Amino acid sequence: MTATNSAPHRPPRHPLPHRVAPAGPASFGDHLRTWRQQRHLSQLELANEADISTRHVSFMETGRTNPSRDMVLRLCERLAIPLRERNALLVAAGYAPMYRERTLDDPALAAARKAVELVLKGHEPCPAIALDRCWNVVATNRAALALLSAHVSPELLAPPINVFRLSLHPKGLAPRIANLAQWRAHLFERLRQQIQATADPTLIALQAELQEYPALEESPPLVLAGEMLGVVMPFCFDSLHGMLSLISTTTIFGTPVDVTLQELAVESFFPADDFTANALRELAQLPNTGG
Q1: How far is 130 from 117, CA to CA, in rounded Å?
Q2: Whole-number Å distance between alpha carbons of 31 and 15
Q3: Which of 56, 140, 187, 256 is close enough to 52 for a disulfide, judged by CB 3.0 to 4.6 Å?
Q4: Which domain holds residue 217?
Q5: Do both 115 and 60 map to the same domain?
Q6: How far apart are CA 129 and CA 15, in angstroms?
């Protein structure tokens, strides 16, 4: 890959996968009950959290009381409901959505888009990827693009490109991940936590798909040297240029008023040893390189 001043690679724009709504809650009361149970709270516990009576909670769940807009927002805050789902509760209660949802290409998000591009470009020669809420790739830097395109089947690079699918599919990176069992368990735990927080049916469907992938030969856990063990999750990747040992961090572009930015994340990978650091620097000097 070549180190240039050009903007990070942005995959072709594409619609998100069609989100099939389950035969789930329709009324505000149904929504509220579902989220309360999702958070493992009793009516009494939610009432105490929201500083209202248990009877009020019960009446809202059964539809005997219509909540005010402020009450909807208060309950959403106490239940830690994501912005996208807060809009759904507002609509179910008869109010207009409060939180905007725009694509990252929207002119109003130009500053945010520029910030993402700077983060990705500034992380080179190390790989970095911007992701949406479903772990689909929104943008990458050149280092990440080179690694992905060199090691996975072209069919997995058709948009929407999903990083969980890329990691665990037999035609993806899975055969080259030295600590696959460890990495797979890490990804599934992250997905489980996100489903617990959002109850997103698209993520639930993704989880089911990943669980159906044929099992590959199990790999032993990777032990990092020094004090890294137990602090970060290693990603050991058998690239065409040798064994690359990486660790990752996630950056969240949160905002209380915009759905798109709340759901945007940047996954940045760092070298875990000197060989990987040197290899990434050398690869950055090669034109049109693949990892």
Answers
A1: 9
A2: 27
A3: 56
A4: 107-284
A5: no
A6: 19
Residue in the block written with tokens 């990892």? 291
- Residues 157-189 as b/e (b if ≥16 CB within 10 A, e otherwise) read eeebbbbbbbbbbeebbbebbbbbbbbbebbee
3-state secondary structure of 110: helix
Does 185 lie in the same domain as 79? no
Nearest 5°: phi and psi at 251?
-110, 130
Q: pLDDT tens digits for 85-121? A: 999 999 999 999 999 888 888 888 888 889 899 999 9
Nearest of 60, 116, 120 to residue 92 by alpha carbon: 60
Asked whether residue 32 falls in the same domain as residue 160, the answer is no
Neighbours of 288 (CB within 10 A): 9
Tell me, yes or no, whether 175 and 269 share the same domain.
yes
Domains contained in the chain, number:
2
Q: Is residue 7 part of a domain?
A: no
34: which 2 tokens?
């579902």
What is the CA 47 to chain-centroid distance, rounded? 31
Instruction: Encode pLDDT of 215-232 as tens digits.
Output: 776 655 555 444 444 457
What CATH number corresponds to the domain at position 266?
3.30.450.180
